[in-house]
Description:
Number of domains: 1
Largest sheet: 2 strands, antiparallel
Structural class: alpha+beta
Strand content: 15-25%
Mean pLDDT: 86
Distance between the termini: 46 Å
Radius of gyration: 16 Å
Low-confidence stretches: 1-6
Amino acid sequence: MKQREDRACSQERIVSRCQLCCAEFEYGRHPDAGRYIAAYQISVCETCYRGNSEGWARHHEERLIAHLTDKCLRVPQRNWRGRLPRDG
């Protein structure tokens, strides 16, 4: 019984905020809650990630490009739809 209690207490709640829409999501408990996109060095909620499968919508571009500039990361070439690719 003690072992179960220790395991339950050791699970930390890690809350993050989507860097595009500012929604909060929790890492760990729900694996589909959010994603880290290494090429952009950002964390996004699953709603933003799934909703932009063909590239980031124009209303996210200003925030995304500002983030890339701040991190000294290159802005990737636009895809066939004229959008910044979702996964960099």
